[in-house]
Every structure is written in C-alpha cells, then in structure tokens.
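Good morning,

Attaching, inline, the backbone tokens for the sequence recovery test we're adding to the shared suite. The designed sequence is right after.
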C-alpha cells in the first residue's frame, strides 16, 4: 500500500480467486474481494481500486471499489462493473449452465470441480462428455468464465473439469501430493470426477473424451496409458519420455530437485517410473497430438515421440505442430484452427461412438 502498512496480493482458495491483503508484519489477513468469483489484475489510483473480475457466466471485465484508501483498514464495498466489452456478444448466444461440484476420490479425499452443461440440457438424458484437465499442475479451475467449456457445451458436450491433487488452492500437502509421483493420485481424482458425472445421470459412459494442454496434456497421457474408457483424446504441449528433456527444456533445476541427477544412484528409475512413454503399449485411444514448434517449456520432441509410437503401434493419431509458436498458441488463425480440430476430433471419436441414451 502507499503507506507501507499493507501487502496486497491475489489468493487462490478452493476454486475462488480473491484479492487479499496482510499487514507488513504478517498479521491481519483480510480479503476485500472474495466469494465465488475470479479476481485478476488490480491497481490503485487515488482512492479508487480497479480490478479485473470474472464469474462463471461472465468473462472478465474491469470493476472498481472506492470505499477506502489503500492504506486504511476497514471494509470495501461490492465491486462495480465499469466495462461491458462482451455484453453485445453475450446477448446473441445461449450459455450453458456451470455448476460447482464436490465429490470423493481415493480414501475419501474431497475433490472440487465444475460441470458445464449444454444450453439445451435435459435431466434424464446422458450426454457425450469431455474430461478437460488444467495445466500446472499447480493451478486450479475457478469460478471464472471458461470459454473452452462453453464452446464444447454449445456443441452438445457435457464438460467435466476437476481440481485434482497437485492443484493450488487447497493447501501445501494437496499441491505436493504429486512430488515425484505424477499420474497417480491426480489420475484417480480426475477419474472420480468422471464417475461422479456418470452417477448423476449426466454423462454417457460410452461416449467419453479427455484432453488438456501443458500438464493437462501430460495427465491426459497418463489417463490413456491407464484406461481405455475414453473414445478420443487430445494431448497438447505435453511430455512423455522425461529423460529426453534433460538438458533440453527450461526445467533443469526442477528435474534435478524432484527426480535427482539421472546418473546418480537409482535416480534413473525415478525418471523412467513416471514417464508415460514407458506405458505407451497400453494406449488404444485415438489421440490428437498438438504443440508449438518453438516450445522450450515442453519441447515438441515429446509430441513427436508420442506420435511416432502410436503410429508404429497402429493407433489412430495425428500430430499438429504450429509454426513459430511457443507454449501458448498466439496467432489468431492458429487458435481458430486448434478449436476446429478439437471439435472435429471429439465429434468423430466421442460423439459418434454410439446413439444418445435417455
């Protein structure tokens, strides 16, 4: 704050993104902006506090708070929306409802997530369902607007998003559960989310798809090496044979801290034990593989290795590499192409798996 009394920051807590502050001595944690919402970038200008804020049914817009000065304690009023960049477009479309869900995974572990329903959803009808997995893994799906889920819902899919172990917002132990143990507790948690949707009668168990980007793609690789329940998969910017990244990507310090130097002691076993490539013989799911040509976060060689293995085994697959792109796909025409390929792949292998059930 201007007077040096407060430290302001963004805080993730159970699928909510708050704006919080704490005294410089570490006491008096307060959350001036809290609740089922996703608060983003913020700043002060005089007595006005401005921030980006999104909810499940509205994309991020600029809001303001003006109840108190930056250095003072005390409550702040409700955020007032200042912009409406998306109002005209939203008036022309039907959004699918998104519900916040909680369910149990292995050993009673509580997992949180979201389900987005097609706009014309009817209770009693089971829909083709997509499990979409977030990146990170230290990240979380939150109460903000999720364009991708709405895109899939508008095309007739039920979309399941979960915050499995490894996610942020649920404490250090929850996030650290994946330390040198990728693809185990998180796999169980995302599958529990799918089973929850099936138990509610929303999801058709015979028409399931899975996919994600970055760690979402990595966990997709773990999913399809451990189960054949999914009719189609899309893995973007993922890794498969971790030793191939030694000396190549920008995570060298992280690899060494988590798995150890591969030539020392039994450390090489750590690298091989959690590499999805070493279970590639179990993959039967048609898989679309995607990535950026210049990705030094998760180098494209990982996607090439997975593609080559699936082709060699006769599994239906495609590899799409976007020229000049890094870990995120930034060129607008490439973004459109990616979404079109998403829908085409899922329509072919998931929606068309069999007739709807009711």
């Amino acid at each position: 704050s201007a007077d040096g009394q407060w430290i302001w920051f963004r805080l993730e807590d159970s699928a909510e993104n708050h704006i919080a502050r704490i005294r410089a001595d570490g006491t008096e944690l307060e959350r001036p902006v809290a609740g089922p919402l996703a608060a983003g970038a913020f700043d002060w200008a005089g007595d006005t506090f401005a921030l980006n804020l999104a909810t499940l049914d509205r994309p991020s817009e600029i809001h303001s708070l003006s109840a108190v000065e930056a250095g003072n304690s005390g409550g702040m009023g409700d955020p007032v929306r200042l912009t409406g960049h998306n109002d005209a477009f939203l008036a022309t479309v039907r959004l699918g409802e998104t519900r916040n869900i909680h369910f149990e995974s292995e050993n009673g572990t509580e997992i949180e997530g979201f389900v987005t329903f097609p706009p014309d959803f009817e209770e009693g009808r089971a829909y083709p369902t997509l499990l979409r997995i977030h990146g990170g893994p230290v990240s979380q799906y939150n109460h903000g607007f999720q364009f991708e889920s709405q895109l899939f819902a508008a095309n007739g899919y039920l979309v399941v998003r979960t915050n499995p172990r490894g996610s942020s917002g649920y404490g250090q132990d929850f996030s650290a559960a994946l330390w040198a143990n990728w693809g185990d507790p998180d796999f169980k948690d995302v599958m529990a989310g799918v089973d929850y949707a099936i138990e509610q009668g929303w999801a058709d168990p015979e028409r399931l798809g899975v996919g994600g980007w970055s760690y979402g793609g990595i966990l997709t690789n773990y999913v399809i090496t451990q189960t054949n329940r999914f009719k189609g998969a899309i893995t973007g910017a993922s890794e498969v044979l971790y030793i191939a990244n030694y000396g190549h990507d920008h995570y060298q310090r992280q690899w060494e801290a988590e798995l150890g130097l591969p030539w020392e002691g039994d450390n090489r076993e750590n690298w091989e034990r959690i590499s999805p490539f070493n279970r590639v013989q179990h993959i039967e799911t048609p898989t679309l593989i995607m990535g950026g040509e210049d990705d030094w976060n998760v180098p494209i060689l990982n996607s090439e290795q997975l593609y080559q293995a699936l082709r060699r085994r006769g599994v239906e697959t495609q590899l799409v590499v976007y020229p000049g792109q890094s870990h995120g796909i930034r060129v607008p025409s490439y973004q459109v192409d990616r979404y079109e390929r998403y829908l085409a792949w899922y329509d072919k292998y998931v929606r068309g798996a069999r007739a709807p059930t009711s």
